[in-house]
Amino acid sequence: MAGIFPAALILGLALHAPVRAQAPPETETSASRDAEAQELLDRATAAVVAGELEQAQIALELLLTTYPESSLRDQVYFGLARIHRQRQNDADAVAQYQKLINEFPGSPLIEEARRELVEAYIGLGQYDGAILILELDRSSNPDPAAREALTDRIVEVLLRKKDRVQAVMELLKKEGGREEEKQAIENRVGELLEQSSQPDLEELVRRFPKGYPGDAALLRLADLRESAREYFEAERDLRRFLLIYPRHKAVSRARGRLAAIRQMYLSRRYLIGALLPLSGRLKPFGQQALNGIRLAVDSAPEEVPEKSVGIVIKDTESEATALQSGLEELARDYRVSAIIGPMLSRQVTAAAPRADAYRVPLLTPAASEEWAKPWKYVFRNSITNRQQAREIAAYAVTTLHLNRFCILYSEDGYGLEMMRVFSEEVVSRGGEIIGRASYDPQATDFGRPIKFLKEADLAKYGILGPPPQQKGEIREYRPGFDAVFMPGDYDQAGLIAAQLAFYEIQGVTLLGTSGWNSQDLFRIGGKYINGGIFVDGFFPGSSDPAVRSFVERYRNRYDEEPTLLAAQAFDTAALILKALQQGAVNGEAVRDYLGRIQNYSGVTGPISATPAGDLSKRLYVIQAKDGKFVQIN
Hints:
With 633 residues, the chain is of the alpha/beta class.
């Protein structure tokens, strides 16, 4: 019976009913019922004393069943809850405590029931339920010492819940009047900050942007970044600290750490620069690229034995001149062997002349538009719009033996480019374009352009069945073309697929580009997208051992799926490391090595250099099949 009914409770079960004032029984029958109920309660008490919990539970449940209106029910609920807790059945214990609290708000057992209900909630892992009770008790308690104790208990439950941010918030509510009390609170907050994760610290910095404990959280965040070798983020946090708290007692420490990070960079034998958008609207894409770069450089000791390699990162979105100033600093002050970035085609065009002037290779892992001038030190390791249109057209004509095509494209620069290149490639291979129709990029109704394609087809090869013989019949339409090219994103492709079927365009192959590569394609397109084929530069589901290793390592480190951008950045960094491994001692040597690359085995496929500076590769051809993507080339 250990811990179930301690002495006070046993006395409560045996003696509480007689002590409490009760209305006198109106009849001999009601007196008899009260006596019988008391006898069952006494029997349960005796069973508890003897350690016979099952017998005690039976007696208490019999009392409730037989005497549902008994005034002893609060004691019965309490006793049953205690038994359930001892038998590790917290869910039933919670139910009994709640009955007691709801039905007998004036019971002398209420206070103890609420305390034990908190423990039962904790036992179930229902921490929010426990915290709610503790907060209600704290708000209604006039005793400052009791409120302090309840706050400490709330903090304990929050830590069980692993919510350190809210735990810190609760500690800051404590009424620390004396200096030693304030110091104790600050020490406890400091302990929690030491135990906090990066996301927790970031949230505290957000909630306290210009004061305590935001300052301490920001310094601790820089510590964690530095320990994780995320030096760019550590530098950013330290500079932010110096900007917000210029008179803080830790200013000299922050400056010292910034100097140490810079010295660490300069002590590396080789440095790779990165120009990426790590703030603003493009931050998610910049972070994907940075993740890929870091994963590649993690293996630098293996790729470049006895040579020290580091990454120096500059944010291209922090200010209007960040791109040029960042490139200047990387090339002049850090003398990097190569620079990965920038992301956008127009940024590459802006940065290329300075890269040539400093003789430092600039490798973009993302730019997709063509540029006219072939710079000497600029390389592109990303798939272009033109490449995608050419590849899907070539696969459709050469491998699938399709000959007649329609094109449904968006009325913007991307759509026009894809339409033109696809058309040129199809015609050059002996195929035929039956019709082309455009739509507004924001459209969700594609009926007008679909009907236009249908009419264009009927004017050439489409077949319209005989007129209906009776009312309600539909004149059957059989398309005379083999495929529809739809170079939009997954949401547009899914909607178009369903609407094509609505307008009787069925039995044709749907073709697309990398914008299709999202599981949401199946959610939007349903069965109508099944069999659709598109191209992309990366396929996480590939059976290639190198791809599988990359995907596993990426998931383990970042707890998310690698994207095309992450894969292209990974290959870009790996190529630079390969150049260093082969003895490239400066930017010119790295450029020469990259210009000779042929069939390098990357996670985005075999990579070869072209005279124009593209690091070309074969694209993956992927089919949407039964709710999954399958590589078919």
